[in-house]
Amino acid sequence: MLRVNKWFEAGKPLGWRKDDTQVKRRREALKHRHGDLLSTARALMALSNVTQDSETARKAKADAHYFYALYRKKNKRGRR
Questions:
Q1: What's the distance, Cα to Cα, between the start and end of the chain in Å?
Q2: How confident is the model over 33-49, as a mean pLDDT?
Q3: Buried b / exposed e along 45-62 (16+ C-beta atoms within 10 A)
Q4: For the chain, which end, N or C, has fewer CB atoms within 10 Å of the first or last residue's CB respectively?
Q5: Does residue 1 sit within a domain?
Q6: Longest C-alpha distance within the chain, in Å?
Q7: pLDDT over threshold 70, residue 16
């Protein structure tokens, strides 16, 4: 039997609200994902892909790109 590892839990609270400031949105999302940059980025990208609200999609995508960039920067330092 093949086991599938999900990269994030769907339906898990994200603590992210489009009406909050950018700093608060990102802080809350990261806190609810226990500091995992990649999981946070993936959850926000999933949110941006499924929402019907254009403002939510735009802000979630911007926050997801921010966390992807942080993740890449963090992993780039340790490779040398």
A1: 39
A2: 92
A3: bbbbeebeeeebbebbbe
A4: N
A5: no
A6: 45
A7: yes
Average pLDDT value for residue range 32-50: 92
Provide the residue range defining the domain that includes 55. 22-77
pLDDT-based confidence at residue 63 (cuts at 50, 70, 90): very high
Enter the tokens of residue 12: 């898990």
Asked if the structure places residue 71 within a domain, the reply is: yes
Report yes or no on 5 lying in a domain: no
* pTM, to two decimals: 0.83
For 9, phi and psi rounded to 5 degrees? Answer: -90, 115
Structure tokens at 4: 């599938």
Number of domains in the chain: 1
The mean pLDDT value for 26-54 works out to 93
Does residue 42 belong to any structural domain of this protein?
Answer: yes
